[in-house]
Amino acid sequence: MIQRVAVIGAGIMGSEIAQACAAGGKDVVLFDTIPAALEKGTAHVGKICERRVARGRMTQEEADAIVARVRPTGADEDLANVELAIEAVPEIMDIKKSVFDRLEKNLPAGAVMASNTSGLSISEMAAVTSRPGSVVGLHFFNPASVMKLVEVVKGKTTDSATVEAMVEFASSLGKNPVRVQECAGFLVNRALVRAMVEAYRAARESGADPAAVDAAVVAGGPSPMGPFALGDMIGLDTMSHLQKDLRAAYDERYDDGGALAEQVDAGRLGAKTGAGFYEGPAPKGEPDDAGRRVADRYYQSMLDEVRRSIDEGIAAEKDVDPAICDGCGWSEGPLAWAASRRTTSAG
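Above: the chain's sequence. Below: its structure in token form.
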């Protein structure tokens, strides 16, 4: 069982992953070449634990032990004994390649090199190393200290033994790993973004009110939040990048009708700027007929995309519903939801 872990990049995601690993009993090296980032990242690990102590979810002794297991460093030699390195640097391929080049030079033989990318090519990163079989995707969902889902992504050259080692590792942290084949967006983001942009396009075409759409989505299915409120929470700049990448990889089914570009060009990025699809917090809307029609397209698009993923061999059918529930917070997976609707209709 892997015990010694390095997390490369001490930003919010990196420090969240470091905390999750330390909470799972691992010895963690939190690596960053920027001292201020290391200081901030280490402090974030402590803050996560402080919040849990305050809520009665762990003791102070447990919190202190977790913090003590995270060692900040900017020295390459501190990577020499780790068994697994997880990069959590910005979603820019050139930056990730430079990290893998660094890991190649400093990790011991046999160490696994993992990327926390949410959709970039694992195979392209692996190509800069001399041990591509040991390169794998390990996609934690944000916040990693809380979210249970981890997508374990097999690139074209990833050894099956590496995948199984990462499934075992994620399970040892109390996470729910799902095996995924490499593709743009992997499983969950590919399906969720498809549903969201379908709703944006449909509302734009029909003139449906976003608040009515969000209310209809929540009232009419297992999603806890509608696509407009969720987009504002994620950040419309982030959503725009995802939409463009997925449309380039697939086709017009990821066309949002220009809804995201309109908001981003106006500087309306969602909650982070105080305005996006909504001015301020999402209002409480009421479902109407137009909203329900868009909500139906939202759910049908999600269902279509997960079925495509199953047909393409991206994920096993049995893993789809648990992944969507864990990754998106749905109360019921799309396949089970569709089956229950068919049963209700037949009855």
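DSSP finds 14 helices and eight strands in the chain.
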